[in-house]
Amino acid sequence: MQMTSKEIDGALVVTVMDRRIDAAVAVRFKDRMQELTGTTADRVILDLSQVDFLDSSGLGAVVGSMKQLGRQRTLDLAALTPTVEKVFRITRMDRVFRIFDTLDAALGEAADA
Amino acid sequence: MPDDGVMPNGADIPPGPAFDETFPSDFRWVRRIVQNAVNTLADLGLSTEDLGSFEIVLAEALNNVVEHAYPAASPGKVRLLIKRRPGALMIEIRDRGKPMPQGRAPLGNHPMTEFHQHDAMPEGGYGWYLIREIVRDLVYDRRDDENFLVIRLGIGDPILDAKSSV
């Protein structure tokens, strides 16, 4: 699972380089999220701009990653491609996560806005 | 079972399956087969919107077989057949694993129906919910120790498209 992270303006941006977050890699995704978010940043932004497809296992892994962060930290999502957006919309997870059209839009928003 | 009868305006659709593959019940194989099937249907001219729905439904249905029909220690074979019909795709999945619970395909209730707290938010159970939200016609049958799941996915219908974008 190819994922990178960097801090921008106090937020930790995690970018997924793989095209798919599916049942074949969901566990590795969640493990990698735990490794990458072991910093003090209160806000994590998951950049999904390169992910074409996410299934229910991938969705579960994103929910699990949010829970791993605990209540004091937030996980926001940015740049969902059409089919990924569809999975979040149909499962109504778009009401659980704050979702931004672009990474820039996510970075322009304060964590507690 | 899929309708193999002659459709009134189906003369221009080739009679054979658009896709027919048998593969091991493994998540990596599911990924490969789903991508192959999407590419095949893209070549047949399906819209991006329909391809997205198809990819979600197919991945969930196949992952379900890998996860629940066969024990992890002894994977079996899965066969996927896709046939094009006027206004629809017939997706047929066959396996020789365990039957579905109570001999029925799950209703696919939303897993959060019973959970509201942040900490209790379920990490699984969204697969059948996704299938049921996208698909109206679905038949499960078991004959001679074989599971048959047949899904009819409407395509190219502006009413369906409008509903799915609500």
In short:
Chain A is an alpha/beta fold and 113 residues long. In chain A, 35% of the residues lie in helices and 25% in strands. Chain A has one domain (3-106): Transcription Regulator spoIIAA, CATH 3.30.750.
Could you explain the architecture of this structure?
The complex is a heterodimer of chains A (113) and B (166). Chain A has 113 residues and is α/β, with parallel strands linked by helices. Chain A has one domain: STAS domain (Transcription Regulator spoIIAA, 2-Layer Sandwich). Chain A is built from 4 helices and 7 strands; from the N terminus they run βββαββαβαβα. In chain A, the strands form 2 sheets. In chain A, strands 1-2-4-6-7 form a 5-stranded mixed sheet. A two-stranded parallel ribbon of chain A has the order 3-5. In chain A, helix 1 (26-36) packs parallel to helix 2 (56-69). Chain A is globular and about 30 Å long. The termini of chain A are far apart. Chain B is globular. In chain B, strand 4 and strand 5 (146-154) form a beta hairpin. In chain B, 31% of the residues are buried. In chain B, helix 1 (27-43) runs antiparallel to helix 2 (48-69) and helix 2 crosses helix 3. Mean pLDDT of chain B is 86; it is low at 1-10 and 158-162. Chain B is built from 4 helices and 5 strands. Helix content of chain B is 33%, strand content 23%. Chain B has a single domain, classed as Heat Shock Protein 90, CATH 3.30.565.10. Chain B has a 5-stranded antiparallel sheet, with helices on one face. Chain B has 166 residues and is α+β, with helices and mostly antiparallel strands. Chains A and B meet through helix 2 and helix 3 of A and helix 1, helix 2 and helix 3 of B.
